[in-house]
Amino acid sequence: MTLDRRFSALGWLAALLFFVLIGRLWFLQVISSPELTEVAAGNRTREVVSESPRGQIFDTNGTVIAGRRESLVVTLDWSGLRHLSEEERLEVLGDAGHEMNLGGEKVKVDRLESVFERASTRSLQPVIVAEDVSAALWVTLQERGFPGIKAERRTLRVYPYIEVASHLIGYVGSVQDQAEADDLNEIDDAKPYRPGDEIGRSGIEAEFDRVLRGTPERLLVEVNASNEVVRTIEVLQPGEPGSDVHLTVDIQLQAAAERVVQTELMEAQRRAPCEDCPVHEANAGAMVVLDATDGSLVAAASYPGFAPGEFLFGMTQDQADYLFQNADQPFVNRAISGLYAPGSTFKPFTAYAGVTAGARAVDYVWLDEGQYRLTSCEEAASRCVFRNAGSQILGEVDLVGAISRSSDTYFYSLGEELWLNVDGFGVTPIQDTAELFGFGASSGVSIPSDRAGRVPTPERRRADHRNNPDAYPNEGWFAGDNVNLAIGQGDLLVTPLQLTNAYAMIGNDGVRYEPRVVKSITNGVSGRVAQSFDPLVSVAAQFDPVAMNSIKEGLARATTEGTARTAFEGFNSSVGVAGKTGTAQVAGKADFALFAGYAPVASPKYAISVILEQSGFGGQAAAPAARTMFDYLFGEIDVPLRAPFTDPEPIVLEPLLDEQGNEVNGYGERIDADGNILTPEQIVAADALRAAEELAAIAAATPVPTVLAPPVPAPAPPPTEVTP
User: Fold this and answer.
1) Tens of pLDDT along 505-519?
2) DSSP notation for 60-116
3) Domain layout of the chain by residue ranges
4) What pTM was computed for the model?
């Protein structure tokens, strides 16, 4: 190729490249201009989503029991630290932690680092690491501008009554990751969740989370190269506070109920158990108070409990261990979901089954000899013999006396009779009656932990054996099973809420309400009622009047001349209480104490149940707790008021004294001021010291007689001089 042809080819190539360049510029400036403009704008605009304040929870009197407040907080945003090396990040966290400690916030670098690690693996939003910081620290952190460490204003959840009603109210936590957020948004995306957003984790906080949750604010903002907001371009969605939830619970009565439960547990701990019985651990308990006229929950105490405000920024390992690894299970709402054998408090329902089935007349007289041998048992073994508590002999009792005096043998015989005559009475008359009163089914209360309990039947026993033969080795149902069921033992399990509602149904002549804990939902801004929750009748049964009148009379006599007589001695006779004590046996543990009842007798206003674990007899432990609560409810004694944002007053028990006035423990042993048992030598020394102190006191109080000195004679006059 000649030189001219080479130059010609290069010219054509240059021209071609020029036209390609011109075409590309035309494409970018004309054809793709709108699209590229949008991309460029995206590089300097951001959508910012902010949580709106959570709705508040009020008690029945309008008192805030779960509120909100503004706070100056310090947050850690992992996205602002992720571009740093580990060495740089630790330096930033160290400097920030140093400034925070100088500002009065005790924050360790290790904690900041752990928050970063947790946030980076779960894609969390900025995490609060300190709340209520001083204005000076707030300004310092803003001026220093640490990457990923910000000082800002936040609305925080606050629980003014600390641990009171913690199981009912629940607590809030954070959405853990995007996967959880996606699952939540599939159910309802009207208020979409993001990782790090606040969410109710238990109680009312969980059940009404989407009601309490505010509508997030969505802003389109312009940011600079440092990702700092320059201006707000558009409000895509205005934020709005969540709705408020109003409960039927009275926070002062709730606090009183919790204190009564704890006090009676402490009393049980120092009470000597019966002979050859386990020591009273008395480590847990529950009390439920219902408004018998409409099913409203007045109080639901569960001990031990927790303080939900401690978990606002996540749980420490110690806190998690206390809640979930503690043998006493403080996180369990015993009032609503605790499952217990009801013991003798179940006898009224067995009695109703026996009378309505035709097995017993109310005036049938049974000779209680302290023990009952199964007529269907041909063995000589002791397992065929069932005894009263302590083998006590009660003599002749009818239905009223069997309930008021709690004759086990009366109900043993009735349970066996019902089973041996299934052709005449049916297979499950006791179970059918239990279901009529609400046992074995969810109560319907608006709390996530509500449980159905367990009513055992022959059919269910066979199913249990098929599914778990190790736990249920026998698939058959025997007379002994019916005997145990008749006195509220065996496989029967109920919740305190179910037991309370069943007794309210007795007092209401067959009307059983669905327990109600929420009265209304109101707009968080205007306060207008958005939804009301009216009383709901679950069952309106037509009771057999003869059977029910005798049962009611037995319950009324139990508190005046029966097993609860001592606890209710001196109670307002114009009101009166109808109730039943119970003592449930649990293998390897001390007896569980129970009481259930209602008042006034003539027209019930309140129904109560009390269950104190490992506390001994129901008449000794549970009935006194119920008596104190009835005293509060009917104004016999003033309710001790609990002020918000204060710790509870310490419980101080009255000392136990012997006949000489010496302090003793539950076993009658002499103890010192610290509760230590005195040795014989120490007792002698203490008595000698006490005698000396008494003598000294007597001597100090005895007036000393005044001794008058004899009169001093007047001096004789000088002799008179005589002149001779």
Assistant:
1) 999 999 999 999 999
2) TTS-EEEEEEEEEEEEE-GGGTTTS-HHHHHHHHHHHHHHHHHTT----HHHHHHHH
3) 3-43, 47-246, 251-633, 663-698
4) 0.85
